[in-house]
Amino acid sequence: MDPVRLERLRDLWRAALLEDVVPFWERHGVDREYGGFLTCLDRAGQPYSTDKPVWFQGRGTWLFATLYDRVEARPEWLAIARQGAEFLERYCFSPSGKMYFLVTRNGQPLRMRRYVFSEVFATLAFAALGKATCDPAACRRAGEVFESFVRYTQTPGLIEPKLNPQVRPLKSLSPRMCLLNLADTLAATAEAVPGSGLHESAYYEQIIDECIAEIFRDFVKTADGYVLEHVMPDGTPIDAPEGRVMNPGHALEVAWFILEVVRRRQAKTRSAAGSAPAPTKDGEPVAGACRIIELSLERGWDREFGGLLYFVDVHGRPPTQLEHDMKLWWPHSEALYATLLAYALTGQPQYAQWYERIHEWTLARFPDPQFGEWFGYLHRDGTVSTPLKGGIWKGPFHIPRAMLYCWKLLEELSARRGAD
Q1: Is 27 inside any structural domain?
Q2: What is the pLDDT of residues 145-168, one digit of tens each?
Q3: In 283, 317, 354, 398, which residue has its Cα 20 to 30 A from 256's Cα atom?
Q4: Rounded to whole angstroms, what are the CA distances from 366 to 327, 340, 363?
Q5: What CATH number is given to the structural domain containing 265?
Protein backbone atom coordinates (compact mmCIF):
# COMPACT_ATOMS: atom_id res chain seq x y z
CA MET A 1 0.00 0.00 0.00
CA ASP A 2 1.33 3.42 -0.87
CA PRO A 3 1.49 6.19 1.78
CA VAL A 4 -1.53 8.03 0.40
CA ARG A 5 -3.69 4.90 0.61
CA LEU A 6 -2.52 4.20 4.15
CA GLU A 7 -3.45 7.72 5.24
CA ARG A 8 -6.86 7.58 3.57
CA LEU A 9 -7.69 4.26 5.21
CA ARG A 10 -6.45 5.56 8.56
CA ASP A 11 -8.72 8.59 8.33
CA LEU A 12 -11.65 6.50 7.07
CA TRP A 13 -11.58 4.11 10.03
CA ARG A 14 -11.05 6.88 12.55
CA ALA A 15 -14.09 8.73 11.23
CA ALA A 16 -16.21 5.58 11.01
CA LEU A 17 -15.43 4.75 14.62
CA LEU A 18 -15.68 8.17 16.24
CA GLU A 19 -18.32 9.82 14.05
CA ASP A 20 -20.63 6.88 13.40
CA VAL A 21 -20.38 3.66 15.39
CA VAL A 22 -19.38 4.92 18.84
CA PRO A 23 -21.93 7.80 18.80
CA PHE A 24 -24.65 5.31 17.79
CA TRP A 25 -23.98 3.19 20.87
CA GLU A 26 -23.52 6.20 23.14
CA ARG A 27 -26.93 7.55 22.07
CA HIS A 28 -28.89 4.32 22.01
CA GLY A 29 -27.03 1.58 23.86
CA VAL A 30 -26.04 3.07 27.20
CA ASP A 31 -28.74 2.45 29.81
CA ARG A 32 -28.56 5.64 31.84
CA GLU A 33 -31.39 4.58 34.13
CA TYR A 34 -30.43 1.06 35.22
CA GLY A 35 -26.81 0.89 34.13
CA GLY A 36 -25.14 -1.43 31.66
CA PHE A 37 -25.97 -1.63 27.97
CA LEU A 38 -29.07 -2.22 25.87
CA THR A 39 -28.22 -4.10 22.69
CA CYS A 40 -31.57 -5.26 21.27
CA LEU A 41 -31.96 -2.25 18.98
CA ASP A 42 -33.85 -1.81 15.71
CA ARG A 43 -32.46 -0.08 12.66
CA ALA A 44 -32.96 3.40 14.11
CA GLY A 45 -31.55 2.42 17.50
CA GLN A 46 -34.84 2.00 19.36
CA PRO A 47 -35.11 -0.96 21.77
CA TYR A 48 -37.29 -3.89 20.74
CA SER A 49 -36.34 -5.71 23.95
CA THR A 50 -34.74 -4.49 27.16
CA ASP A 51 -33.24 -7.85 28.17
CA LYS A 52 -29.48 -7.62 28.51
CA PRO A 53 -27.01 -10.23 27.27
CA VAL A 54 -24.29 -10.44 29.90
CA TRP A 55 -21.40 -10.84 27.51
CA PHE A 56 -22.30 -7.47 26.01
CA GLN A 57 -22.18 -5.85 29.42
CA GLY A 58 -18.54 -6.92 29.36
CA ARG A 59 -17.99 -6.04 25.72
CA GLY A 60 -19.50 -2.57 26.07
CA THR A 61 -17.42 -1.90 29.17
CA TRP A 62 -14.30 -3.07 27.33
CA LEU A 63 -15.04 -0.76 24.39
CA PHE A 64 -15.44 2.46 26.36
CA ALA A 65 -12.55 1.72 28.71
CA THR A 66 -10.35 1.00 25.69
CA LEU A 67 -11.44 4.19 23.95
CA TYR A 68 -10.54 6.13 27.08
CA ASP A 69 -7.16 4.38 27.23
CA ARG A 70 -6.14 4.33 23.56
CA VAL A 71 -7.97 7.24 21.93
CA GLU A 72 -8.70 10.08 24.34
CA ALA A 73 -9.25 10.41 28.09
CA ARG A 74 -12.83 11.63 27.75
CA PRO A 75 -14.59 11.62 31.14
CA GLU A 76 -17.86 10.49 29.54
CA TRP A 77 -16.21 7.36 28.13
CA LEU A 78 -14.73 6.47 31.49
CA ALA A 79 -18.09 7.05 33.18
CA ILE A 80 -19.78 4.69 30.70
CA ALA A 81 -17.12 2.04 31.29
CA ARG A 82 -17.43 2.32 35.05
CA GLN A 83 -21.20 2.03 35.07
CA GLY A 84 -20.90 -1.04 32.83
CA ALA A 85 -18.46 -2.65 35.25
CA GLU A 86 -20.74 -1.83 38.17
CA PHE A 87 -23.69 -3.50 36.43
CA LEU A 88 -21.57 -6.56 35.74
CA GLU A 89 -20.46 -6.82 39.34
CA ARG A 90 -23.85 -6.17 40.86
CA TYR A 91 -26.12 -8.30 38.70
CA CYS A 92 -24.28 -10.69 36.40
CA PHE A 93 -22.68 -13.21 38.78
CA SER A 94 -24.77 -16.02 40.24
CA PRO A 95 -24.35 -17.06 43.91
CA SER A 96 -22.07 -19.88 42.73
CA GLY A 97 -19.81 -17.35 40.99
CA LYS A 98 -20.71 -18.49 37.48
CA MET A 99 -21.98 -15.70 35.28
CA TYR A 100 -25.43 -15.52 33.76
CA PHE A 101 -25.98 -15.29 30.01
CA LEU A 102 -29.06 -13.04 30.05
CA VAL A 103 -30.59 -10.70 32.64
CA THR A 104 -33.50 -8.24 32.63
CA ARG A 105 -33.00 -4.54 32.26
CA ASN A 106 -32.82 -4.11 36.03
CA GLY A 107 -30.53 -7.10 36.46
CA GLN A 108 -32.80 -9.99 37.35
CA PRO A 109 -31.38 -13.31 36.09
CA LEU A 110 -33.16 -14.79 33.07
CA ARG A 111 -30.87 -17.42 31.62
CA MET A 112 -27.81 -19.40 32.63
CA ARG A 113 -26.01 -21.23 29.80
CA ARG A 114 -23.56 -24.05 30.30
CA TYR A 115 -20.90 -22.03 28.48
CA VAL A 116 -18.60 -19.51 30.17
CA PHE A 117 -18.26 -16.89 27.44
CA SER A 118 -19.74 -14.22 29.72
CA GLU A 119 -16.59 -14.71 31.81
CA VAL A 120 -14.42 -14.07 28.75
CA PHE A 121 -15.77 -10.59 28.21
CA ALA A 122 -16.00 -9.72 31.89
CA THR A 123 -12.28 -10.49 32.11
CA LEU A 124 -11.58 -8.21 29.15
CA ALA A 125 -13.81 -5.51 30.66
CA PHE A 126 -12.17 -5.44 34.08
CA ALA A 127 -8.69 -5.65 32.53
CA ALA A 128 -9.40 -2.73 30.18
CA LEU A 129 -10.79 -0.62 33.01
CA GLY A 130 -7.86 -1.53 35.24
CA LYS A 131 -5.34 -0.62 32.56
CA ALA A 132 -7.11 2.61 31.60
CA THR A 133 -7.21 3.85 35.20
CA CYS A 134 -4.20 1.99 36.67
CA ASP A 135 -6.64 0.48 39.17
CA PRO A 136 -5.25 -2.67 40.84
CA ALA A 137 -8.71 -3.64 42.13
CA ALA A 138 -10.13 -3.86 38.61
CA CYS A 139 -7.05 -5.78 37.46
CA ARG A 140 -7.41 -8.25 40.32
CA ARG A 141 -11.06 -8.75 39.43
CA ALA A 142 -10.05 -9.50 35.86
CA GLY A 143 -7.63 -12.10 37.18
CA GLU A 144 -10.29 -13.69 39.38
CA VAL A 145 -12.81 -14.01 36.55
CA PHE A 146 -10.06 -15.37 34.28
CA GLU A 147 -9.27 -18.10 36.81
CA SER A 148 -12.97 -18.98 36.95
CA PHE A 149 -12.99 -19.32 33.16
CA VAL A 150 -9.93 -21.57 33.29
CA ARG A 151 -11.46 -23.72 36.02
CA TYR A 152 -14.70 -24.27 34.14
CA THR A 153 -13.07 -24.99 30.78
CA GLN A 154 -10.27 -27.21 32.04
CA THR A 155 -11.99 -29.24 34.76
CA PRO A 156 -13.52 -32.35 33.18
CA GLY A 157 -17.24 -32.63 33.88
CA LEU A 158 -17.65 -29.14 35.32
CA ILE A 159 -19.41 -28.05 32.13
CA GLU A 160 -21.98 -30.53 30.88
CA PRO A 161 -20.81 -31.76 27.46
CA LYS A 162 -23.01 -31.42 24.39
CA LEU A 163 -22.46 -35.01 23.38
CA ASN A 164 -21.89 -38.15 25.43
CA PRO A 165 -18.09 -38.09 25.95
CA GLN A 166 -18.04 -41.86 26.39
CA VAL A 167 -19.34 -42.25 22.84
CA ARG A 168 -17.99 -39.17 21.04
CA PRO A 169 -15.47 -37.15 23.04
CA LEU A 170 -14.51 -33.86 21.46
CA LYS A 171 -12.88 -30.53 22.19
CA SER A 172 -13.61 -27.15 20.59
CA LEU A 173 -11.57 -24.30 19.21
CA SER A 174 -13.61 -21.49 20.80
CA PRO A 175 -12.51 -21.93 24.44
CA ARG A 176 -8.87 -22.22 23.40
CA MET A 177 -8.88 -19.12 21.23
CA CYS A 178 -10.57 -17.22 24.06
CA LEU A 179 -7.99 -18.48 26.55
CA LEU A 180 -5.22 -17.34 24.21
CA ASN A 181 -6.65 -13.83 23.89
CA LEU A 182 -7.37 -13.50 27.61
CA ALA A 183 -3.87 -14.59 28.57
CA ASP A 184 -2.38 -12.14 26.06
CA THR A 185 -4.53 -9.35 27.49
CA LEU A 186 -3.59 -10.11 31.09
CA ALA A 187 0.10 -10.42 30.25
CA ALA A 188 -0.02 -6.91 28.81
CA THR A 189 -2.08 -5.62 31.74
CA ALA A 190 0.28 -7.11 34.32
CA GLU A 191 3.19 -5.31 32.64
CA ALA A 192 1.33 -2.00 32.31
CA VAL A 193 -0.18 -1.63 35.81
CA PRO A 194 2.21 -1.61 38.78
CA GLY A 195 0.89 -3.65 41.71
CA SER A 196 -1.91 -5.06 39.56
CA GLY A 197 -2.33 -8.15 41.72
CA LEU A 198 -2.20 -10.30 38.61
CA HIS A 199 0.26 -13.12 38.10
CA GLU A 200 3.64 -12.26 36.67
CA SER A 201 3.47 -12.01 32.90
CA ALA A 202 5.48 -15.26 32.57
CA TYR A 203 2.47 -17.17 33.91
CA TYR A 204 0.28 -15.90 31.08
CA GLU A 205 3.04 -16.31 28.49
CA GLN A 206 3.20 -20.03 29.26
CA ILE A 207 -0.57 -20.35 28.78
CA ILE A 208 -0.26 -18.50 25.47
CA ASP A 209 2.47 -20.80 24.22
CA GLU A 210 0.46 -23.88 25.17
CA CYS A 211 -2.66 -22.55 23.44
CA ILE A 212 -0.82 -21.69 20.23
CA ALA A 213 0.86 -25.09 20.15
CA GLU A 214 -2.44 -26.91 20.70
CA ILE A 215 -4.28 -24.87 18.05
CA PHE A 216 -1.62 -25.53 15.43
CA ARG A 217 -1.26 -29.19 16.38
CA ASP A 218 -4.91 -30.21 16.71
CA PHE A 219 -7.20 -27.77 14.90
CA VAL A 220 -5.20 -26.46 11.94
CA LYS A 221 -5.09 -29.19 9.30
CA THR A 222 -2.69 -27.52 6.90
CA ALA A 223 -2.16 -30.58 4.70
CA ASP A 224 -5.91 -30.92 4.21
CA GLY A 225 -6.50 -27.19 3.79
CA TYR A 226 -8.84 -26.31 6.65
CA VAL A 227 -9.25 -25.29 10.29
CA LEU A 228 -11.73 -27.33 12.33
CA GLU A 229 -14.08 -26.13 15.06
CA HIS A 230 -14.27 -29.50 16.83
CA VAL A 231 -11.88 -32.45 17.02
CA MET A 232 -11.26 -35.49 19.19
CA PRO A 233 -9.20 -34.78 22.35
CA ASP A 234 -6.05 -35.92 20.54
CA GLY A 235 -6.78 -33.77 17.49
CA THR A 236 -8.19 -36.55 15.34
CA PRO A 237 -10.92 -35.27 12.98
CA ILE A 238 -14.48 -36.54 13.49
CA ASP A 239 -16.44 -37.70 10.45
CA ALA A 240 -19.74 -36.16 11.51
CA PRO A 241 -21.34 -32.77 10.74
CA GLU A 242 -19.94 -31.19 13.90
CA GLY A 243 -16.51 -32.61 13.08
CA ARG A 244 -16.44 -31.26 9.51
CA VAL A 245 -17.51 -27.71 10.26
CA MET A 246 -15.21 -24.74 9.66
CA ASN A 247 -16.11 -21.23 10.77
CA PRO A 248 -13.95 -18.88 8.67
CA GLY A 249 -14.63 -15.96 11.01
CA HIS A 250 -13.37 -17.87 14.03
CA ALA A 251 -10.29 -19.02 12.15
CA LEU A 252 -9.48 -15.45 11.08
CA GLU A 253 -9.95 -14.22 14.63
CA VAL A 254 -7.62 -16.81 16.12
CA ALA A 255 -5.06 -15.96 13.43
CA TRP A 256 -4.88 -12.32 14.41
CA PHE A 257 -4.88 -13.24 18.09
CA ILE A 258 -1.64 -15.12 17.39
CA LEU A 259 -0.23 -12.27 15.32
CA GLU A 260 -1.01 -9.83 18.14
CA VAL A 261 0.96 -12.02 20.57
CA VAL A 262 3.96 -11.83 18.26
CA ARG A 263 3.56 -8.08 17.85
CA ARG A 264 3.33 -7.45 21.59
CA ARG A 265 6.32 -9.63 22.37
CA GLN A 266 8.47 -8.04 19.69
CA ALA A 267 7.49 -4.54 20.80
CA LYS A 268 8.48 -5.49 24.35
CA THR A 269 11.82 -6.84 23.14
CA ARG A 270 12.53 -3.73 21.08
CA SER A 271 11.60 -1.51 24.01
CA ALA A 272 13.89 -3.41 26.37
CA ALA A 273 16.72 -3.24 23.86
CA GLY A 274 16.11 0.44 23.18
CA SER A 275 16.02 -0.21 19.44
CA ALA A 276 13.87 1.47 16.85
CA PRO A 277 10.76 -0.35 15.59
CA ALA A 278 11.49 -2.78 12.79
CA PRO A 279 9.30 -5.04 10.63
CA THR A 280 8.55 -8.40 12.20
CA LYS A 281 10.41 -11.37 10.78
CA ASP A 282 8.31 -14.14 9.33
CA GLY A 283 8.88 -16.56 12.20
CA GLU A 284 7.01 -19.78 12.76
CA PRO A 285 3.99 -18.31 14.65
CA VAL A 286 3.58 -15.59 12.04
CA ALA A 287 3.84 -18.01 9.15
CA GLY A 288 1.37 -20.37 10.84
CA ALA A 289 -1.14 -17.61 11.57
CA CYS A 290 -0.86 -16.31 8.00
CA ARG A 291 -1.53 -19.81 6.73
CA ILE A 292 -4.72 -19.86 8.83
CA ILE A 293 -5.76 -16.61 7.13
CA GLU A 294 -5.11 -18.11 3.72
CA LEU A 295 -7.08 -21.27 4.52
CA SER A 296 -9.97 -19.21 5.88
CA LEU A 297 -10.22 -17.15 2.73
CA GLU A 298 -9.72 -20.10 0.40
CA ARG A 299 -12.51 -22.02 2.13
CA GLY A 300 -14.74 -19.18 3.23
CA TRP A 301 -14.82 -16.64 0.41
CA ASP A 302 -17.97 -16.95 -1.68
CA ARG A 303 -16.73 -17.15 -5.27
CA GLU A 304 -20.19 -16.44 -6.68
CA PHE A 305 -21.45 -13.52 -4.60
CA GLY A 306 -18.37 -12.43 -2.66
CA GLY A 307 -18.14 -12.08 1.09
CA LEU A 308 -17.45 -14.69 3.72
CA LEU A 309 -19.70 -17.68 4.23
CA TYR A 310 -20.64 -18.28 7.85
CA PHE A 311 -20.05 -22.05 8.00
CA VAL A 312 -18.40 -24.49 5.62
CA ASP A 313 -18.37 -28.28 5.57
CA VAL A 314 -14.73 -28.98 4.85
CA HIS A 315 -15.51 -32.15 2.88
CA GLY A 316 -18.10 -30.45 0.70
CA ARG A 317 -21.01 -32.22 2.34
CA PRO A 318 -24.27 -30.31 3.00
CA PRO A 319 -23.78 -27.87 5.90
CA THR A 320 -26.33 -28.46 8.65
CA GLN A 321 -26.48 -24.86 9.89
CA LEU A 322 -29.42 -23.11 8.25
CA GLU A 323 -27.51 -19.82 8.28
CA HIS A 324 -24.39 -21.34 6.72
CA ASP A 325 -24.38 -19.16 3.60
CA MET A 326 -25.39 -15.88 5.25
CA LYS A 327 -22.93 -12.99 5.44
CA LEU A 328 -22.55 -11.67 8.99
CA TRP A 329 -20.95 -8.51 10.34
CA TRP A 330 -18.41 -10.09 12.65
CA PRO A 331 -16.48 -12.44 10.30
CA HIS A 332 -15.96 -9.52 7.92
CA SER A 333 -14.78 -7.32 10.79
CA GLU A 334 -12.27 -10.02 11.80
CA ALA A 335 -11.15 -10.48 8.18
CA LEU A 336 -10.40 -6.78 7.78
CA TYR A 337 -8.05 -6.65 10.74
CA ALA A 338 -6.52 -10.10 10.19
CA THR A 339 -5.48 -9.35 6.61
CA LEU A 340 -4.26 -5.85 7.44
CA LEU A 341 -2.19 -7.14 10.36
CA ALA A 342 -0.74 -9.96 8.24
CA TYR A 343 0.31 -7.35 5.68
CA ALA A 344 1.83 -5.13 8.37
CA LEU A 345 3.88 -7.95 9.86
CA THR A 346 5.05 -9.60 6.65
CA GLY A 347 4.91 -6.93 3.96
CA GLN A 348 3.48 -9.55 1.60
CA PRO A 349 1.26 -7.91 -1.04
CA GLN A 350 -1.29 -10.75 -1.19
CA TYR A 351 -2.57 -9.78 2.26
CA ALA A 352 -2.99 -6.15 1.19
CA GLN A 353 -4.85 -7.36 -1.88
CA TRP A 354 -7.15 -9.52 0.22
CA TYR A 355 -7.70 -6.62 2.62
CA GLU A 356 -8.77 -4.37 -0.25
CA ARG A 357 -11.13 -7.03 -1.61
CA ILE A 358 -12.79 -7.55 1.77
CA HIS A 359 -12.85 -3.80 2.43
CA GLU A 360 -14.66 -3.06 -0.82
CA TRP A 361 -17.25 -5.82 -0.36
CA THR A 362 -17.89 -5.03 3.30
CA LEU A 363 -18.24 -1.26 3.07
CA ALA A 364 -20.52 -1.55 0.05
CA ARG A 365 -23.08 -3.60 2.01
CA PHE A 366 -22.91 -3.49 5.81
CA PRO A 367 -22.92 0.25 6.75
CA ASP A 368 -26.32 1.91 7.07
CA PRO A 369 -26.05 5.40 5.54
CA GLN A 370 -29.43 6.48 6.90
CA PHE A 371 -29.34 5.55 10.58
CA GLY A 372 -25.67 4.75 11.15
CA GLU A 373 -23.78 1.69 12.40
CA TRP A 374 -23.85 -1.55 10.37
CA PHE A 375 -26.46 -4.08 9.42
CA GLY A 376 -25.53 -7.41 10.93
CA TYR A 377 -27.21 -10.06 8.83
CA LEU A 378 -27.12 -10.27 5.05
CA HIS A 379 -28.41 -12.91 2.67
CA ARG A 380 -25.86 -14.74 0.58
CA ASP A 381 -26.23 -12.20 -2.24
CA GLY A 382 -25.41 -9.33 0.14
CA THR A 383 -28.93 -7.96 0.56
CA VAL A 384 -30.15 -7.19 4.08
CA SER A 385 -31.89 -10.05 5.87
CA THR A 386 -32.98 -8.16 8.99
CA PRO A 387 -32.39 -4.45 9.66
CA LEU A 388 -31.68 -4.75 13.39
CA LYS A 389 -28.53 -3.09 14.71
CA GLY A 390 -28.13 -5.21 17.80
CA GLY A 391 -29.48 -8.17 19.70
CA ILE A 392 -28.31 -10.99 21.94
CA TRP A 393 -25.44 -11.72 19.52
CA LYS A 394 -24.65 -8.32 17.97
CA GLY A 395 -23.64 -5.24 19.91
CA PRO A 396 -20.81 -2.77 20.53
CA PHE A 397 -17.80 -5.01 20.01
CA HIS A 398 -16.62 -6.61 16.76
CA ILE A 399 -17.22 -3.62 14.49
CA PRO A 400 -15.76 -0.90 16.74
CA ARG A 401 -12.88 -3.18 17.76
CA ALA A 402 -11.96 -3.78 14.12
CA MET A 403 -12.28 -0.07 13.31
CA LEU A 404 -10.11 0.95 16.26
CA TYR A 405 -7.47 -1.68 15.59
CA CYS A 406 -7.34 -0.96 11.85
CA TRP A 407 -7.08 2.78 12.51
CA LYS A 408 -4.25 2.41 15.02
CA LEU A 409 -2.35 -0.09 12.88
CA LEU A 410 -2.65 2.15 9.83
CA GLU A 411 -1.39 5.02 11.96
CA GLU A 412 1.70 2.96 12.78
CA LEU A 413 2.22 1.98 9.16
CA SER A 414 1.87 5.59 8.00
CA ALA A 415 4.39 6.74 10.60
CA ARG A 416 6.79 3.97 9.57
CA ARG A 417 6.50 4.90 5.91
CA GLY A 418 7.01 8.55 6.81
CA ALA A 419 10.18 7.69 8.75
CA ASP A 420 11.48 5.70 5.79
Answers
A1: no
A2: 999 999 999 998 888 888 899 999
A3: 317
A4: 10, 19, 6
A5: 1.50.10.10
Question: Among 24-38, 96-110, 405-419, which stretch is predicted with the lowest mean pLDDT?
Answer: 405-419
The whole-model pTM stands at: 0.96
Which domain, by its residues, includes 128? 49-367
Has residue 10 been placed in a domain? no
pLDDT digits (tens, 9 = 90+) for 235-261: 999 999 999 999 999 999 999 999 999
Residue 418 lies in a domain: no
Helix, strand, coil share (%) of the chain residues, nearest 5: 55, 10, 35
Return the closest-CA partner of residue 197 out of 128, 146, 151, 141. Answer: 141
The H or E element spanning position 53 is: strand 52-53
Query: Alpha-carbon torsion 228, 233, 239, 240, what sign?
Result: negative
Cα(111)–Cα(399) distance, rounded to whole angstroms?
A: 26
**In the predicted model, is pLDDT for residue 6 greater than 60?**
yes
Would 403 be classed as within a structural domain? no
- Tally of structural domains, the chain: 1
Could you count the other beta carbons within 10 Å of the beta carbon of residue 76?
11
